[in-house]
Amino acid sequence: MKKVLFATTALVASAGIASAQGIEFSGYGEMGVVGGGNFNGGFAAGGVTQFHNDLMLKFSATTETDGGLTVGVSTEIQKAEGNANGAFAADNTAFFISGAFGTLTMGEIDGAVDKRLTENMGNPGTIGDDETIHAGYMGSYADGAYDNQILRYDYDFGAFGVSASVELDDTDTVDDGYAVAMSYDTEMGGIGLGFGLGYQSFETDGTYAPVGVLGVIPAGFESEIIAVDMTADFNNGFVAGIEYSAWNFDNGVVSQDIDHYALSAGYSFDAFSIGANWGQYDVDGIGDISGYGLAVAYDLGGGASIHAGYGDSEWDAVFGPDAGQETWSIGVAMSF
């Protein structure tokens, strides 16, 4: 799930500062220093050390109909670093209707697979998203392959949950994208376990890039993803997860397979939270593209915390020996 440039892991607000008649405001702010470096090309020069600041305000409103349905809307207003004063933009806008039948949500949201599967456990977040922008990270499956406007249905019964979603191709030139997924939570020996299984299909339109350093997949490829995951909460501050997904792209002449593997773990004690994750794309006929990320946070109280992160990527299979990138960040964040 979120994520994070793909589904951003920027620090999420947890409490509202104003609430009346179903209206709530929340948000976060952050400042610090980010940097890193590129090795052996592939991308434009990056990783220059620089100051970073960010501000996000989230607005949400809910109401209840006479028939007992809950209806709501939310959006995020964000101002990133830069010298364009006042350049705020709305993002992640969504509208939902919920009742005994389940919940129907439309907007810039997770698709069914990303809703039910968890790719990164125990992540306290960083101001530079170092732990989620490395080359091995996969945070949203094929969500956003078109216009990133998704309609999703969710229903939970006991320990089971099911979701189905669709993302339309606005150009009407390729097939629409569909996804279905389910999750199951249980406990065994005092350990909380979670399992997820999902399927997603779509047709490439010439703009979708499943692995960033490889560029876009040409238009006209019928594409399928099958994904599974397992998570564990040991109820002692330690959590862990494993994820696998198989991707296939086929236009009737050329077929391309990609396997993705991910491991993640986190540990919290006192005011500290530590998270780590590793991911790898095994691209048929090309090789491995991998990376890992680390995130550490210290809770100062009052919604403020110190965050530090590091990310490392390797794409030797694409650009030759020692090709890759590393990023780092350190700073202070405040949620409200």
Helical region count? Answer: 2
Mean pLDDT rating:
90
CATH fold type: Porin
Given this structure, which CATH class is correct? Mainly Beta
Report the principal-axis shape. globular
The level of helicity is under 10%
Provide the CATH architecture: Beta Barrel
Secondary structure elements and pairings:
Blueprint: E1 18-20, E2 23-39, E3 50-64, E4 70-80, E5 89-99, E6 102-107, H1 112-116, E7 150-157, E8 160-167, E9 177-188, E10 191-203, E11 222-233, E12 238-250, E13 255-269, E14 272-283, E15 287-301, E16 304-314, H2 316-319, E17 324-335
Antiparallel strand pairs: 1-2, 2-3, 2-17, 3-4, 4-5, 5-6, 6-7, 7-8, 8-9, 9-10, 10-11, 11-12, 12-13, 13-14, 14-15, 15-16, 16-17
Domain Porin: 7-314
InterPro entries: Gram_neg_porin_domain, Porin_dom_sf
Pfam families: Porin_4
Structure summarized in a few sentences:
The protein has helices at residues 112-116, 316-319, and strands at 18-20, 23-39, 50-64, 70-80, 89-99, 102-107, 150-157, 160-167, 177-188, 191-203, 222-233, 238-250, 255-269, 272-283, 287-301, 304-314, 324-335.
Describe this structure in words.
The protein has a 16-stranded antiparallel beta barrel with strand order 2-3-4-5-6-7-8-9-10-11-12-13-14-15-16-17. The relative contact order is 0.19. The protein starts with 17 loop residues before the first strand and ends with a strand. It is globular, with a radius of gyration of 20 Å. The protein has one domain (31-54, 94-335): Porin, CATH 2.40.160.10. Residues 1-20 have low confidence and may be disordered. It has helices at residues 112-116, 316-319; strands at residues 18-20, 23-39, 50-64, 70-80, 89-99, 102-107, 150-157, 160-167, 177-188, 191-203, 222-233, 238-250, 255-269, 272-283, 287-301, 304-314, 324-335. It has 336 residues and is mainly beta.
